[in-house]
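Sequence design from tokenized structure. All designs in this work follow the same two-part layout: the structure record, then the generated sequence. An example of the structure record is given first.
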């Protein structure tokens, strides 16, 4: 599943190729991809055709384009998207046939013909394809509302307006407006396992299974350590480790274990080669030489080193 670095790679790829362009056509091949759209396909067409994409913004794993009318005035809506488990946004040209990624893959690639669900046609001949094998992602319009803290809504945003459907999503670790000490206190205020808390998009957004495991390995903290057992210093160490590992992933295009994640040009990321815990079951720990284990915790796999990632428990009641 694309996590924050992968979605940011997509945003950066979309920005120079779509911002300032006008939507001239909407090709809907599978209505399930717009299942969250109020009013269905007719409402989506009415909102998009003739609209200009004025910015492309990301908060956590959510992406959205700001919409403006023909005169350049904001419409008060955004075209919002989520890639789900297998979604891809691919850039091509009208009339061109999308091709499968050429990078080696450890899993099944999405078929750019069979799994193309929707295409946006832009006024310069660019085509933006939403390809989604498992159909957990989607596109839909959402009204813009003011961010509660009044800061810029997300990476790439010109102001504090964000889609109403993203208003519940917390700021992510690459957002300059995030308050890390406040997030650390939120982790420490709960008894749930720290990994569960890191995956809670209402506490901090954008962290998924891969980067949670990597951050906890870097901070020498076991996945099932209760949040309430963390010191403020340890909680901040985990958050900073998560930010650092995602920044490094971003530099090399994200993490790709299979061809389900590619950037807008169809290329895979290469950070999987630098992981220390996730996907390393049975391999020696790069830090202490112990053996990396994989266990199931709350229906998710967790990778950790039992030698240098020890579980701690709260000293007493909250």
């Amino acid at each position: 599943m694309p996590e924050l670095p992968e979605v940011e790679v997509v945003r950066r790829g979309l920005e120079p190729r779509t911002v300032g362009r006008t939507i001239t056509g909407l090709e809907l091949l599978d209505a399930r991809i717009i299942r969250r759209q109020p009013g269905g396909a007719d409402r989506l067409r009415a909102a998009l055709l003739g609209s200009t994409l004025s910015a492309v913004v990301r908060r956590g794993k959510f992406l959205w384009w700001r919409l403006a009318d023909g005169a350049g005035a904001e419409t008060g809506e955004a075209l919002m998207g989520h890639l789900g488990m297998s979604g891809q946004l691919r850039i091509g040209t009208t009339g061109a046939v999308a091709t499968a990624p050429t990078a080696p893959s450890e899993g099944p690639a999405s078929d750019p013909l069979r799994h193309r669900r929707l295409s946006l046609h832009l006024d310069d001949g660019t085509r933006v394809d939403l390809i989604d094998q498992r159909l957990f992602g989607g596109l839909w319009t959402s009204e813009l509302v003011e961010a509660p803290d009044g800061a810029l809504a997300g990476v790439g945003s010109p102001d504090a307006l964000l889609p109403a459907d993203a208003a519940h999503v917390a700021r992510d670790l690459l957002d300059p407006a995030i308050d890390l000490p406040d997030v650390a206190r939120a982790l420490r205020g709960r008894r749930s396992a720290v990994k569960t808390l890191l995956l809670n998009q209402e506490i901090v957004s954008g962290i998924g299974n891969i980067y949670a495991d990597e951050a906890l390995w870097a901070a020498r903290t076991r996945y099932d350590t209760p949040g309430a057992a963390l010191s403020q210093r340890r909680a901040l160490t985990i958050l900073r480790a998560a930010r650092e590992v995602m920044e490094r992933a971003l530099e090399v295009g994200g993490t790709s274990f299979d061809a389900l994640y590619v950037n807008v040009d169809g290329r895979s990321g290469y950070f999987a080669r630098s992981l220390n815990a996730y996907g390393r079951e049975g391999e020696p720990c790069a830090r202490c030489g112990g053996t990396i284990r994989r266990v199931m915790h709350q229906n998710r796999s967790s990778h950790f080193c039992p030698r240098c990632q020890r579980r701690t428990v709260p000293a007493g009641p909250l």
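The chain is about 20% helix and 25% strand. We note this feature because it recurs in several other targets discussed in the main text.
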